[in-house]
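Translate structure to sequence.
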């Protein structure tokens, strides 16, 4: 970094980059990583944004693990409102049991609890990390990614229709 860049930018606290001269700095070194500050509209460097997102993921994982323990030892679970009102299974029905079975390495049972989520949960986790990261650096997700989300939702709705087909057919006819 040249002295001109060092005069234009200062980092504060958790790697927040502030431009003094009104123009973004070219680059700043934070936590041992050189990051392109112009790519972030919020002034947060890439390394710091990723750290924040991963920290949130760890917190969500801990909360999920606590929920798993409560469910496993008390039988208490969050009921599905859609199932209670219609008697049909929504696209998310069985996810709690799926993760409980996965935690106990009963993968066949986990697959039968919710086939769609069993296959796609890594995609969902990756998508949440990506969207969280893009939000942290102040950028929009790409059109292709938005299209992928729409396709995923459509596939989830098709799965929901397929898993309830026999029951709906029996109600109608």
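Result:
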């Amino acid at each position: 970094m040249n002295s001109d860049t060092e005069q234009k930018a200062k980092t504060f606290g958790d790697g927040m980059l502030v431009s003094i001269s009104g123009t973004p700095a070219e680059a700043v070194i934070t936590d041992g990583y050189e990051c392109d500050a112009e790519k972030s509209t919020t002034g947060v460097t890439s390394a710091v944004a990723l750290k924040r997102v991963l920290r949130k993921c760890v917190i969500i994982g801990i909360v999920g693990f606590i929920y798993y323990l409560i469910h496993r030892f008390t039988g208490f679970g969050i009921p599905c409102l859609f199932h209670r009102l219609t008697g049909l299974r929504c696209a998310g029905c069985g996810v709690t049991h799926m993760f409980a079975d996965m935690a106990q390495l009963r993968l066949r049972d986990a697959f039968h609890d919710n086939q769609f989520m069993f296959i796609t949960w890594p995609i969902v986790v990756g998508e949440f990390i990506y969207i969280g990261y893009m939000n942290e650096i102040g950028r929009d997700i790409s059109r292709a990614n938005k299209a992928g989300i729409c396709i995923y939702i459509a596939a989830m709705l098709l799965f929901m229709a397929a898993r309830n087909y026999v029951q709906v057919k029996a109600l109608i006819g």
